[in-house]
From TrEMBL:
InterPro entries assigned to the protein according to its UniProt record, in alphabetical order: DUF397 (IPR007278)
Lineage of producing organism: Bacteria, Bacillati, Actinomycetota, Actinomycetes, Kitasatosporales
Name the record gives this protein: Uncharacterized protein
Length: 64
C-alpha cells in the first residue's frame, strides 16, 4: 500500500493537489495521482523523469 504525499504547491484547502508516493522510488517508478480522485487512475513515472520534473519546477521552468 502506498503512503501518499501532497504537493507543497497545493491550494489552501488541500483539495486540488497532486500526490505522489515517495516510498515507491526504489522500485524505479513514482506513482502520481489526483487527490480529488484517490481511487482514480495512477500515473507511474520513471524515477529519473520525476526527479527531472521536480528539478525543473523548482528551477522556475514552469509557472505554478
Amino acid at each position: 500500500m502506498n503512503t501518499w504525499v501532497k504537493s507543497s504547491y497545493s491550494d489552501r484547502d488541500g483539495t486540488d493537489c497532486v500526490e505522489w508516493a515517495p516510498a515507491s522510488a526504489p522500485s524505479g517508478a513514482i506513482p502520481i495521482r489526483d487527490s480529488k480522485r484517490p481511487t482514480g487512475p495512477i500515473l507511474r513515472v520513471p524515477a529519473a523523469a520525476f526527479a527531472g520534473l521536480v528539478s525543473a519546477i523548482k528551477g522556475g521552468a514552469f509557472s505554478v
